[in-house]
Design goal:
Order of helices and strands: EHEHEEHEHHHEHEHHHEEHHEHHEE
Radius of gyration: 23 Å
Mean pLDDT: 87
Strand order of the largest sheet: 2-4-1-5-6-7
Strand content: 15-25%
Helix content: 25-40%
Structural class: alpha/beta
Low-confidence stretches: 24-39
Number of helices: 14
Length: 366
């Protein structure tokens, strides 16, 4: 399940620095010029989960495997990208392929770092990117509606629904509003899914602040929080350069000492990864045995056979039942055997909706 979150923003706001911090497998080149990132860099990122560590301590397996999400560092967008300015077409095509957006916004002053838009203005920066996504969507929607008008006479109900939803989208985009803010129903989202509209994607904002503001934020990050309040979006205040330094440490003791120096209890990066995970509507279940303790990623609301499929497709095809222990019960009773003895192991069937943190074992027959 390779779900992707794309890091976006104007040039020189700290996107590649953030990518360097989050990515354990790829280091993007961070330089002070306009199109440093041309091809999108991609990295798999471990999702920090204290529950996995606790299960590991109890089971003491041969190996422990965290779950991961994929982060993509996308080229900096400029005003006019929807019309092909700069690397606009490439940028927008790359956004089309991700499932959620991490929007990095510059909330620091530094005369040595180029800024083409003049004085620091996080609200304007946010709106530039939003407008470009909306303009591209409006172009896509109008073209699709024009094609569909000729085919509507067939009376296809599915096509009629798509047409009606796209008409609503056009109206919304003409008002300068994103499709995400329409709060479409599950059926409406499914009807237009094949159009891969950009402004429908969920967004998490990163306020990249100076070192002095890393704990408190500043007037720029405060303005950004105020601006997104009505959108229900999350803003994470962090200093990308510090996070990149923390990520460089291989030795945990050195890492702890560095963080103590900056009065940090955890990297802001951990919060960013957790929020991204939630933004993608993901959930985690665990398998726990002496060979391996492992975290598995599923979509929220998945039933047991779907959850089994992320281990192997045969598990879904031949699903019989699932043995389930809640994470809390596993920690309380400290082993699968003790949970079984105390009646805390449940047998669930095909309709069981998996809870975040469930410890599971699947029985199947192929």
């Amino acid at each position: 399940m390779a779900l992707q979150a794309g890091i976006v923003g104007l040039p020189n706001v700290g996107k590649s620095t953030l990518f360097n911090a989050v990515s354990s497998s790829a280091k993007a080149q961070a330089s002070n010029y306009r199109f440093c990132t041309i091809e999108p860099n991609t990295g798999l990122v471990n999702v920090p989960d204290p529950r996995l560590n606790k299960l590991e301590a109890l089971v003491q397996p041969d190996r422990t495997v965290p779950t991961q999400i994929e982060i993509v560092d996308i080229a900096g967008l400029v005003r006019g990208a929807s019309k092909g300015e700069g690397l606009g077409n490439k940028f927008l095509a790359n956004i089309r392929e991700v499932d959620a957006i991490i929007h990095v916004i510059r909330c620091f002053e530094d005369e040595n770092i180029l800024r083409e838009e003049g004085a620091i203005n996080p609200i304007s920066d946010k709106e530039i990117i939003e407008t470009e996504l909306q303009l591209k969507d409006l172009d896509s929607v109008e073209k699709k509606l024009s094609k569909m008008e000729k085919m509507l006479k067939t009376g296809d109900a599915k096509m009629k629904l798509e047409y009606d939803v796209l008409l609503q989208c056009k109206e919304q985009l003409n008002k300068g509003k994103s499709i995400l803010s329409m709060n479409l129903s599950k059926e409406e989202k499914a009807a237009i899914a094949e159009n891969f509209l950009l402004s429908e994607k969920p967004v998490l904002y990163v306020a990249n602040v100076d070192e002095a503001s890393m704990h408190t934020g500043n007037k720029y990050s405060d303005a950004l929080k105020e601006a997104v309040k009505n959108e229900g979006a999350q803003v994470i205040v962090m200093t990308n350069a510090i996070e990149a330094q923390i990520a460089e440490f291989d030795n945990p003791d050195d890492k702890s000492m560095f963080m103590e120096e900056y009065k940090m209890t955890e990297p802001a990066l951990d919060r960013l990864i957790h929020y991204t995970y939630k933004l993608l509507n993901l959930s985690t279940y665990f398998t726990a045995g002496v060979q391996e303790v492992r975290a598995w990623t599923i979509h929220q609301g998945w039933k047991a056979p779907q959850a089994a499929s992320v281990i192997h497709t045969d598990f879904e095809k031949g699903f019989i039942k699932a043995e389930v222990i809640s994470y809390e019960d596993f920690i309380t009773y400290q082993s699968e055997a003790a949970c079984r003895e105390n009646g805390r192991l449940r047998i669930e069937g095909k309709e069981y909706v998996v809870n975040d943190g469930d410890v599971m074992h699947f029985r199947f027959n192929v």
